[in-house]
Amino acid sequence: MSDSTGHGHVVLLSGGVGGAKLALGFDRLLPRGALTVIANTGDDFRHLGLDISPDLDTLMYTLAGIVNPETGWGCRDESWQFMAALEQLGGETWFRLGDRDLATHIERTRRRAAGETLTAITADFCARLGIGSRLLPMSDATVATRVDTDAGLLDFQDYFVRRRAAPVVRALHHDGAAGAAPSPAVLAALADPRLAAIVIAPSNPWLSIAPLLAIPGLRAAIAAAKAPVVAVSPIVGGAAIKGPTAKIMAELGLEVHNAVLARHYRGLVDGLILDTVDAGETAAVESLGVRAATTATVMHTLADKTGLAAFTLRFAATLA
Fold first, then answer.
1. Does 307 map to a domain?
2. What is the pLDDT of residues 198-247, one digit of tens each?
3. Could you tell me if residue 4 is inside a domain?
């Protein structure tokens, strides 16, 4: 349904850098308050005594307009004196925390220790940064992605950052997901009668989106929602736009093809958006009962991001 401005509300399920690009597109396209981003927190971990939420922070910095434009994560105009001093003292420096970014982790850790939820802290940070969209962690409970590899069972950041996603993946686990619950804010967003679409960002389906869908109550709320569910593929021309999606698919014995992605999301999504270079794969996707549409999905400029967001809404309207 649409609100008085003619726009419906949108819920976006997202990981970090890739999903943040589409989140920014929706944020700039929609009226203030019409976008809710539900972020993966399976990557969260405790490091140097601090509570780190990488995907939440990437989304927050992006929506606030302060993200590092060269990396897509961290803060713009960052300095690194803390890391330099830590290295001099022999501390762990494999996970880089900039001086400005460090303030986020310190304040989050302090407030969580005082009993505040991650949802409440994130909402306050976003308000202070002038963000008009809602950013919600997928749960206030702890869910930890662990990667079963040829180098053993690894915590996510050990696999992804310290080892640069080099080990061969055998399986993925989401510790704590079965007993976790989505927050009341997440459930309210998915039950909003003004909801026009639920969108799965072009984030890594196995590393970034799977942790959200592993929470039974969250997956059930998506399935029960009245709005159409549309996924944007992160696969373009048989390769991942960014990150190890294609590598992981191959290691799990999966062909790097959009039909495999459609099968992965089947039963949950109504439509899948492919890049125009993959137009030849639409028939295979639709043979699985998932509607397909094609457009330019690689986002470099703000116009690319808002354009993909607008196309996604138009496609969702045809599925409603």
1. yes
2. 999 999 999 999 999 999 999 999 999 999 999 999 999 988 887 899 99
3. no
- C-alpha 319: how far from its chain's center? 23
Is residue 193 a part of any domain in this protein? yes
6: phi > 0 → left, psi -120 to 50 → alpha, else beta; which? Answer: left
- For the chain, the domain total comes to 1
Q: Pick from 57, 19, 10: which is nearest to 205 by CA?
A: 19
Degrees, nearest 5: CA angle 193-286-37:
35
* Whole-number CA gyration radius for the chain: 19
Query: pLDDT category, 176, cuts 50, 70, 90?
Result: very high
Cβ neighbours of residue 300 closer than 8 Å, sequence gap 6 or more? none
Q: Please give the pLDDT value at position 241.
A: 81
Say if residues 135 and 122 touch (Cβ distance below 8 Å): yes
Tens digits of residue pLDDT in 25-73: 999 999 999 999 999 999 999 999 999 999 999 999 999 999 999 999 9
Q: What are the CA-CA distances from residue 284 to residues 14, 44, 179, 201, 288 (Å)?
A: 25, 36, 36, 21, 7
- 297, 275 in Cβ contact below 8 A? yes
Q: Which domain holds residue 125?
A: 9-319
Q: Report the alpha-carbon angle 9-304-23, nearest 5.
A: 35
CATH of the domain at 177: 3.40.50.10680
- Sheet of strand 152-155, all strands in order from the earlier edge strand to the far edge: 152-155, 144-149, 169-175
**Mean pLDDT for the chain?**
96
Residue 2: inside a domain, yes or no?
A: no
